[in-house]
Amino acid sequence: MEPFEMTIAQSLLALRKKEISARELVRSYVKRIAEVEPTIRGFTSLSPEHKVVAQAEQVDRLLVSGQPVHPLAGIPFALKDNMCTRALATTCASRMLKDYIPPYDAHVTEMLDEAGGILMGKANMDEFAMGSSTENSAFQVTRNPWDQSCVPGGSSGGSAALVAAREVAYALGSDTGGSIRQPAALCGVVGLKPTYGLVSRYGLVAFASSLDQIGPLTRSVEDCARVLEAIAGHDPRDSTSAVRERESYSKFIGREVKGYKVGVPREFFEQGIAPGVKDVVLDAIARCAGPLGIEVDDVSMPHSPYALSAYYIVATAEASSNLARYDGVQYGFRAPNSDNLLDLYHETRSQGFGQEVKRRVMLGTYALSSGYYDAYYLKALKVRTLIRRDFENAFQQYDFIITPTSPNVAFKIDEKIDDPLTMYLNDVYTTPANLAGVPAISLPCGFSDQKPVGLQVIGRPFDEGRLLQFSHALESVLEIKEKKPQF
């Protein structure tokens, strides 16, 4: 096995046993990136090779001296390009922020740097995290490692593709309506959206502030637990950061799950789901129930069909407000040759934003405008409350909710880009968890048309430990994680 093929857990063991050095591990990933990145195109920028090798050598010195090091020390990773980094540009895959280098690091950047992680580069994404295919990037289209003619999902498509292609051991993404879980499903990796407030959003370029959450994309549930341990915790710089004791999520891995009750919402298996995806998910649930000793029942979440509509009103309204700061005055792109301030605003935003971003800003501005606020935005907030109550009611009877992650497998590049309504339907199963603020994880559960299918497990707020425990048990029965794309 090549070093870049190892999971975080395997790399950690090899480093501790001195079977491999951190320098050898990093150089293995550098070589892998050189081989497959021209095809995958998952990075928007790369850290200099001499820098990452020097960081690895520092980890080696600590290991040789016998000093305690963090479990993620020496492990190569990527950050979605909407998380601030002083060492690399943070572009949000937008012309508006091309070459923008922030004066500070995001909270998660600081945490992983303190842990000794090796930042290999920034991952491509849909512009300002608006999209489900990573085709909305201003710079390039990332390709799915399982089928290079297909999209990797979005908006964290670069992060998911890099993990699936073994260009990094793990990556961080952001999830506003499914942007970690949907690409994780399409690329056959594990993706976790934590409870809202568990991971600080400080230094995350905002899309929709009441929905955005940072989380890990990894090759296994155990790796996911290790990364979450490193980035979770209270941060006073984020006013929405939850004040909670830090947990050791990896301690939950391998524990018994017998007796857990699982609800399968019938609304998620009705209209719109591809038959192959439906069959694979239901088969996966049936395969796991007996061996794990879990109880599976149908459950109704009556307001879930309205989640997508509510999400695209709340998210676009908040995007309209958050993206108002990009005016060509303070930072970022400024249109040349403007005669007055109004022209400067108009030309800067017309040239700096892509079509999807402009579409969502206009939708959000309309929903917030006088005469329409009550009819759209206020009503969407009321629906959001009803969806949260659906989850509260379900969790009175069940420990977890299981659904498909995406209604379809990876689709062809350019297949849906000109049909925004069809593209928005990719988020139909993931948006409810964002509206309710509950944790949800996607893990690969099988294949349809030789492409990965994702299964979504939703848990109670701040119950990530048991959610990872249960997901690891499912993963051990399904035995999908060992399969990898072939180039």
Short description:
The chain is α/β, with parallel strands linked by helices.
Structural description of this entry:
- It is a single chain.
- This protein has a domain at 3-258 and 430-478: Alpha-Beta Complex (Amidase signature (AS) enzymes).
- 39% of the residues lie in helices and 13% in strands.
- The protein has helices at 8-16, 22-40, 49-65, 107-114, 157-164, 181-187, 221-231, 275-292, 307-322, 341-352, 355-368, 373-397, 420-424, 431-436, 464-478; strands spanning 43-46, 76-80, 118-123, 170-174, 190-193, 214-218, 261-265, 295-299, 400-404, 440-448, 451-458.
- Strands 1-3-2-4-6-5-10-11-9-7-8 form an 11-stranded mixed sheet, sandwiched between helices.
- Strand 2 (76-80), helix 4 and strand 3 (118-123) form a beta-alpha-beta unit.
- Helix 2 packs antiparallel against helix 3 (49-65), helix 8 (275-292) crosses helix 15 and helix 9 (307-322) packs across helix 11 (355-368).
- The two termini are 16 Å apart.
Largest sheet: number of strands, sense, barrel closure: 11 strands, mixed
Query: Counting H and I runs of at least 4 residues, what is the number of helices?
Result: 15
CATH topology of one domain: Amidase signature (AS) enzymes
Question: Which descriptor suits the 3D outline?
Answer: globular
Roughly what fraction of the amino acids lie in strands?
5-15%
* Fraction of residues in H or I helices: 25-40%
The CATH superfamily title of one domain: Amidase signature (AS) domain
Strand order of the largest sheet: 1-3-2-4-6-5-10-11-9-7-8
